[in-house]
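Tokens as discussed.
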């Protein structure tokens, strides 16, 4: 099972549908840099950077009735 980055549902008072997750995945594929940083401080800041994920490694998958975005551990460059 992939390491989960984000899933549909309510987070910090904001609701995200399965369609929102599909839209985020499409925008990530089209607009993100080739290497996406893995950070702990999001959304307040984007520090510290723990490593990077190639944008091609991010996949959408189903968990029950929810859609999620994630990646396989061996695809990440963790420093």
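Sequence:
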């Amino acid at each position: 099972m992939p390491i989960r980055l984000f899933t549909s549902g309510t987070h910090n008072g904001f609701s995200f549908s399965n369609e929102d997750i599909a839209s985020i995945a499409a925008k990530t594929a089209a607009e993100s840099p080739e290497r996406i940083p893995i950070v702990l401080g999001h959304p307040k800041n984007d520090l510290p950077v723990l490593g990077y994920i190639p944008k091609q490694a991010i996949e959408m998958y189903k968990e029950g009735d929810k859609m999620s975005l994630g990646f396989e551990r061996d695809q990440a460059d963790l420093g």
